[in-house]
């Protein structure tokens, strides 16, 4: 299933701005509300639809990540990806995104369909916990990140992770039922 416009607009929970209503946007909005109101995340530390930009064979691509959580210094510490299918099938893609995010890698990543979730150790790719309770509260996340050794990727590791990530994006975009699903290349500036 792919994300398509429903032709309306709704107010973004985090920014207060009017945004397009899509097949997945209500789920994103509910997740943002959960993060703030139930898990204690400061709104200012949550950025929605963060573009992960990457290059494969000289061609630039971007993939929006549903949420990136930043610490008070502006360093990304958690990536959250909403999925429209079985959560387990998106775990490797989500771990790759956590490794490739600008300013990262992050220590942890979450993939969720809003009914189930996997909390992933980005370094190992292993599932730390599985259920909606796996999503840590703000203070717990900060403690977890503090205890985690995060090291930058080497150029070779980054290249390999980028290819894996791009392969997963190819399954999500461009193999669906129409051109509306294709992963867009970045426009070149002249």
Structure in words:
Helix 2 (91-100) packs across helix 4. It is built from 4 helices and 8 strands. The model is unreliable at 173-190 (pLDDT under 50). The termini are far apart. The chain has helices at residues 25-38, 91-100, 138-146, 155-172, and strands at residues 5-11, 18-22, 46-56, 59-70, 76-82, 108-112, 117-121, 127-130. The strands form 2 sheets. The protein has a 6-stranded mixed beta sheet, sandwiched between helices. A hairpin with a 2-residue loop joins strand 3 and strand 4. The radius of gyration is 16 Å and the shape is globular. Helix content is 27%, strand content 29%.
Descriptive keywords:
alpha+beta, disordered C terminus, 190 residues, tt1808, chain A
How would you concisely characterize the structure shown here?
The chain has 190 residues and is α+β, with helices and mostly antiparallel strands.
Fold topology:
Layout: E1 5-11, E2 18-22, H1 25-38, E3 46-56, E4 59-70, E5 76-82, H2 91-100, E6 108-112, E7 117-121, E8 127-130, H3 138-146, H4 155-172
Parallel strand pairs: 5-6
Antiparallel strand pairs: 1-2, 3-4, 4-5, 6-7, 7-8
Helix pairs in contact: 2-4
């Amino acid at each position: 299933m792919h994300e398509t416009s429903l032709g309306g607009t709704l107010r973004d929970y985090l920014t207060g701005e009017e945004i397009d209503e899509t097949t997945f946007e209500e789920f994103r909005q509910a997740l943002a509300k959960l993060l703030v109101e139930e898990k204690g995340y400061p709104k200012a530390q949550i950025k929605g639809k963060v573009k992960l930009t990457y290059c494969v064979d000289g061609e630039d691509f971007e993939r929006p990540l549903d949420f990136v959580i930043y610490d008070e210094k502006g360093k990304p510490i958690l990536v959250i990806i909403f999925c429209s299918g079985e959560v387990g099938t998106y775990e490797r893609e989500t771990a790759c995104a956590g490794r490739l995010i600008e300013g990262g890698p992050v220590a942890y990543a979450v993939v969720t369909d809003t009914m189930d979730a996997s909390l992933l150790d980005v370094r190992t790719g292993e599932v730390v916990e599985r259920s909606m309770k796996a999503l840590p509260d703000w203070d717990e996340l900060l403690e977890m990140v503090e205890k985690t050794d995060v090291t930058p990727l080497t150029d070779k590791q980054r290249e390999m992770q980028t290819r894996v990530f791009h392969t997963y994006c190819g399954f999500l975009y461009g193999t669906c039922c129409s051109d509306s699903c294709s992963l867009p290349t970045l426009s070149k500036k002249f």
